[in-house]
Amino acid sequence: MSDKTETILAINSPQAATVTDSAAHGKSQVTDDSLTLENFRSPAAEARIMPFWFWNTRMEPGLIRRQIHAMAQSGIGGFFLHPRQGLETPYLSDLWFERVQLAVQTAKQLSLKVWLYDEFPYPSGMAGGLLTAHYPELKARTLDYETYHAHGGVSVRKVLPLGRVVSAIACPCEENHIDWERAVDIRTSFGVVLSRDLFWRWKLEHCPYSEKRYMADEGQLVLQWTPPGKGTWKIYLGIEREMSGFKYYNHYFDPLRNGAAEAFLQLTHARYEAALGSEFGKTIPGIFTDETEPPEWSPELEKHLLETEGIDLAQCLPALKEDDHPQAHDVRYRLRNAALRLFQDRWETPIARWCKKRNLIWGAEKPTWCPDHFRHVAQPTIDAAHQRAGAPPEPLTADLRSNARAAMASAQQAKTSIVRCECFHSIGWGGTLQDQKWQIDWLAAQGVNRFTPHAFFASVNGLRKHDAAPSFFLETPAWSSYHKLADYTARLSLALSHGHEDVSIAVLHPTESLWVESAASQFTKEEYEWLMNQLMRQHRMFHPVDAQTLLRAKSQENSLVLGWARYQVLLIPPLVVADSVTAQAVNAALETGMTVMMAEPLSDITLDGNSARKIFSWPGITAIRGRDQWIAQLDARLPQTLSVQNSAMNEAESVWCVQRSDGDDNIIFLANTIATEQHLRVLVPQSQLNWREWLLETGDVQKLQTDGEGGFLLHLPAYGSALLVGKAQAIASAKTRKPPRHILSLDGTWQLQTDRPNALRLNHWRAGPSREEAVQPIEAIPARYYDKAREAWEEPFACAENGEAWYSREFTCRHVPEDLCLLVEEGAIGEPWSLEINGEPLAVSAFHTIEFHGENKLACSLYDIVRPGRNEIVLHVRDTTANDGLRTPLHLIGSFGLYGKERRELSRPAKECAFEDRLGAGLPHFSGSLHYTRSCSFPHLSQGTELVLPGYCEDIIELTVNGHSLGTRPWAPYCWTLPFDLDGEAEILISVTTTLLPFIEGQQWDPHQHEAISV
Question: Structure pTM?
Fold first, then answer.
């Protein structure tokens, strides 16, 4: 640590920003990313956190201005304007664009950036449902696959939902062996029946003689077929139907249809251009697309395969499901390949071209089918970091949607520096700054250098708070310290955008082996993932690549060069199959003199006359016959330049790192992924440079401790990190030293104060269709909700036929504080509703608007209504519908403590307690800051001594000694440097800021069990 007292930087760097994204050629580049101390201490907007800002309520001008100003004041660099469920401002209306224009104008005044999100809500492509409303022919279709057994001479009758029969193949089978050569096409055996009889009473004016009418409906598809012979047959059906049940609009669109992209651009992007085109490439750097991917099925695939490959899916559709089909591998691979190529040509290329022409960066987060799939996107984006500190960090996987190494490979090959991550969604309301910092660190160590938290909510009222929670915005107690994470992340992002990665190793992504989905494909996937993660653990920089990418590279001096990437070694995991493209790529690597190391293949299956086994036999291939050979063979052929060793002189596998350079500056970032401190020896390349540690939290620079043998000694605390920068010229820096430490004693009793009223979460009620029948125990959740796991609707209790619902509950008061209020958040109760306490109605006029963990809360004083002893609240909701009624808990707030058997009795607040004994202090549902004070006796401590908080902690802690704040620590390590001598008695104040988990969910986080526990 630095021996300087922490300095909180002024949060004005976005306003002083001079760096701008250049969208030239549609690429994400920063025009001034020089790594100077001035830039490092106050990074520009582009390097700063840019969250998804959920527009999920009525977006009024005042709210928009307030929230943008709050972001600017806390060091946020901009935002992604994301329409989200709960939005009341009509999407794509004139009013919508007025509000967006206001947001852009306000952001421009504050030098913030505004990314446009191209959908409402997600995934992209539907234009808020307008695409298929305007062009119903673009609706997506699915292919339902079914099989049946039949017996020769016995008629088969199958009744199915109506659809188009794509394929109907019947095959003889003996002892589970399918005779594919004797397959019979039975599509003409299908017909239609109307399956439901109807009786109408319908007297026609012009035919008054009869009023009875027989009708029918519910057309269904019927197979009527008798297999020949006497043996067993197996019937394979593929029936195409319009997609239904997809989120938000009950259907989706088909991106493979000609004209779909152009129609979408006209409905969305063109509207934004008309309203905001003058800010394209300026305040608005780009447009973001979310989660759109090639479909598993489209009629376009059927047509394309027949026309270009001669594959008739009507005759070979069973190959998609049956491994023993003679065309299984070929058809699966070609279907997948066709889907991707059509998607790139018909969907991605038009959007990329549109954005490039208008000087916009096109960013996209999507399920990525192979590394080449990143190519059309100017700013590759992944979706990762959905865990809390204490869990193992997410490993690199074959799912490239979350693979930062593959995304950075694409960026480097295109001579760009930026990889973005949509991060943190669904980590829950217990998510802390420690969690976010930990995840940012290990994402950065994989190559991510732009961070988009999911999300900042415009409103957390009602059900909105449960939209992939949490929000990290104004409503959270941590918001006052968020600028620390913003500054830390901005400095890290700036440093890791500088120069480019020096990567010599390419790892072949086993595209074909994964696409054929054979029994061996899972083994290929596991070995590929193991290899990537082992390289990370051994601090070997690498890029996942595919054959298509390698064939775009140029041969230069025993290397394949593409953009900034220069590959000298190609590692090939065990493959199931290899097509002609892979064969060409491996051959190109061998011809240029690269080292090619290949694991033994898993089969002899051929594609295009090629097989992995054939490639494995080529001269020049280094055979790998076990996991233990990879690193040994690699060390023999490509000596390691960067080594991060633990105290046992082995590579510190839990410390991940990334390295960048531009020829003059060298940057190494190291992240400790675990909760155990690490003492490291770091051997760096170009050790003759002037290496320093640039402190990400403060912007200061300090010298590194050398080991006398060309390495550096480095201490990383739990979840700690370090940024090492090597420059040709020396830079002024503080000396590093190990100060004396004093561990604070937390034992005994502390005086306690809180920064806001306590809360009792009113979650458990009795409900029914009338006041007298309100006896069913329920939680405060909608009167009818959908259980996604069970795929069924649930009704916790029965409402009256007219929609009336009654709720009641009791609470006990041993103490009635003067500030006792009932808190009702906007949207917590379906309209219209009324409340009474102890039989006394609460008049609408008695409620007033307050801010309490968010805006637009209603509060009503209860001091004159509540009495000592038992009290009853009765809620009456009229016109209750699905997802209505009492939707979220209400709260009592005030100066009280909660005690009793279930900690639900209002009593006098505690003035004293043991440190962090929140339950003992009567605060099970409290969210905010707790101030612990007492007098402590110290031995003589000299200036510069570190005061250390013992034990595990993950909250935000501020330490004050004798009225002098030593600073706030939002994450580990929780230690402070004394700016003066300390001897004898001193007044200690420790302020602990919590999350919203207790208030919103009635839970506390158990770090040992790594789960939230109800309190």
Answer: 0.94
